[in-house]
Amino acid sequence: MALFGSSQFGVFLVDGYSLLSAKLQGFSHEVEVELQPSEGLGDLWRATLPTGMRKATITQDGAFFDTTTSGVHDAMKAAPSTVRLVAWAVAGNLIGALFTACQGAFSVKYGVLSVSAKLTKANVAYQVTGQLDEGVILQSATPKTVDWNTKTDGASVDYTVDPTQTVIPITSATKANPCVVTTTVPHGLTTGQKVLPSGNTLAGPSINSDLAVTVLSTTTFSVAVNTTASTGAGTGGSLVRSSTVAGGVGYQFVSAFSGFTGFIGKIRSSPDDITYADLITFTNVTTAPAAERLTVAGTIDRYLAFNGDVTGAGSITPFVGFKRT
Amino acid sequence: MTDRLNGTHYRALVRLSTRANVTLAEPGETCARVPVESLPMLLASGKIAPATADAAPRDGKEF
């Protein structure tokens, strides 16, 4: 289990405004399941049923009231009905770390609190419209002055080590063509999806490599490996997914931008870490703050990298994350 | 068999590039410059498609 402290709270961006500089004292996001009364005549006790709807809210407390450009007042002085893109990271401002963002948030309450002999503070409450997206950081909020590529910089993201992955135990793998793998718990895979088994004893050849699956049941699937030369069936080990098949959503925030005349950010993916394919290309940015959320359909491969192309000379502070659906 | 590994039998559906972001194929172009070892995985993930019906995969064994 990983625990995180306040010093690891690495990012809080609202429409590209970086509000951590306002020294927040508290932050929360809550997800509620909406329930509907379901009791009727003759019932003695109150009863409820889930409607299937969920609601998310975000609050930030104790920021210093700040009227400078890109300060908290600059971010919040717009009408409360403004829909905003919001992202935060409680586990550090690091490539590969978790981040959370929301599809849209109304800043429904902006309060300025003045207390005798203390600096004035500002609190904001947001009502989220749409879903929360929890993914991984592809580009940390770090100043950049030239073109960059997180892959060649040594910081691409490998989905098989994603902290949100569920490790699925393997019960057995058959001596057969194709090899049939049985999992201890429902695997939740889709035909065509790829997995990375490890620790299974099957040999001749091993199945401990990146493989596409054909789903046979909730706890079995086959892989295109001929294991008939094996001395027997394989046992043990586990697997993680190495691709997803239901698309995803990318977020890009730019909290500082000076000197440059343009910036184009691009998320690329690769199934083998050799050849990369363009996945999401964000709109050209010419000013900050800026924020954009884009969705993509289809297969999302194992490796993700971010590429930043700047025009001219200057400095930029981007933040990019991606959530697999 | 060897001839079927030729990337010219496939076309890119999205821009393909190296790790260093050097373009290997723009959408619609053939995959002649794409590393041969990447072709099966790119095909499986829908990033490339056979350029002709003759290049279509058969029983997943063409590679």
Structure description:
- The complex is a heterodimer of chains A (325) and B (63).
- Chain A folds into three domains: 115 residues, Beta Barrel (Elongation Factor Tu (Ef-tu), domain 3), CATH 2.40.30; 93 residues, Jelly Rolls, CATH 2.60.120; 77 residues, Ubiquitin-activating enzyme E1, FCCH domain (Elongation Factor Tu (Ef-tu), domain 3).
- Helices cover 2% and strands 50% of the residues of chain A.
- In chain A, strands 1, 2, 3, 4, 5, 6, 7, 8, 18, 21 and 23 form an eleven-stranded antiparallel beta sheet that branches.
- In chain A, a hairpin with a 5-residue loop joins strand 11 and strand 12.
- With 325 residues, chain A is an all-beta fold.
- The longest helix of chain B is centred in the middle third of the chain and has 6 residues.
- In chain B, strand 2 and strand 3 form a beta hairpin.
- Chain B is mainly beta and 63 residues long.
- At the A-B interface, strand 20 of A face strand 2 and helix 1 of B.
